[in-house]
């Protein structure tokens, strides 16, 4: 009985997140109606409150899901780039480029910060930061980048990619901003390289 209840609760969470993701992408957080959203999921407001506390909690869950997908996508691109250094650059550029995705723009980069505050403080960003820090540590051990504090470097690299994505999302001409942002990100990251005579 308890197992079935847990399964039903998880099914409800999945339905609510899917309905909210669609509503937030199409209408934006403010205009998305909780009644329409729960009706779309075939559930009640009570299910929303029980699972997420409120609409803000539901937005946080949606952002966590999208942010996790973004991190996985960027990591896949980084792994195909050939080596830790090229992977680091490719992951950062991939994250920045995802700012062109309308769903990412609206939910994660525009509504998210407006409702949930500083994205660098979101739990989903913590995993991203840890992965970048591990990469930086490997690059330092390999003698590819300067022996700087790995956490500081990871925070600055992630912050640069995040701020570039925020810039693109808020821009009137995202396609024009993208190459400038990626080029600047690469230039900043290259400053960490050890200079060989």
UniProtKB/TrEMBL annotation:
InterPro entries: Homeodomain-like_sf, HTH-type_TetR-like_transc_reg, HTH_TetR, Rv0078-like_C. This is TetR family transcriptional regulator. It comes from Sinorhizobium alkalisoli. PROSITE patterns: HTH_TETR_2. Pfam families: TetR_C_41, TetR_N. Keywords: DNA-binding. Transmembrane segments: none annotated. GO terms for molecular function: DNA-binding transcription factor activity; transcription cis-regulatory region binding.
């Amino acid at each position: 009985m308890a197992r079935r209840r847990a399964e039903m609760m998880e099914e409800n969470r999945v339905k609510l997140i899917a309905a909210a993701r669609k509503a937030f992408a199409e209408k934006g957080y403010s205009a998305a109606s909780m009644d329409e959203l729960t009706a779309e999921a075939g559930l009640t407001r009570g299910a929303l409150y029980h699972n997420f506390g409120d609409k803000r909690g539901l937005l946080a869950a949606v952002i966590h899901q999208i942010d996790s997908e973004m991190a996985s996508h960027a990591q896949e691109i980084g792994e195909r780039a050939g080596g830790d250094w090229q992977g680091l650059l490719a992951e950062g550029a991939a994250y920045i480029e995802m700012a062109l995705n309308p769903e990412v723009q609206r939910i994660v980069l525009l509504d998210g910060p407006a409702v949930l505050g500083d994205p660098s403080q979101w739990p989903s960003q913590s995993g991203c930061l840890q992965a970048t820090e591990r990469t930086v540590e490997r690059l330092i051990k390999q003698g590819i980048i300067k022996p700087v504090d790995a956490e500081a470097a990871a925070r600055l690299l992630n912050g640069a990619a995040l701020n570039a994505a925020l810039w693109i999302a808020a821009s009137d001409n995202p396609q024009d901003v993208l190459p400038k942002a990626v080029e600047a990100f690469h230039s900043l990251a290259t400053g960490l390289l050890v200079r060989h005579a």
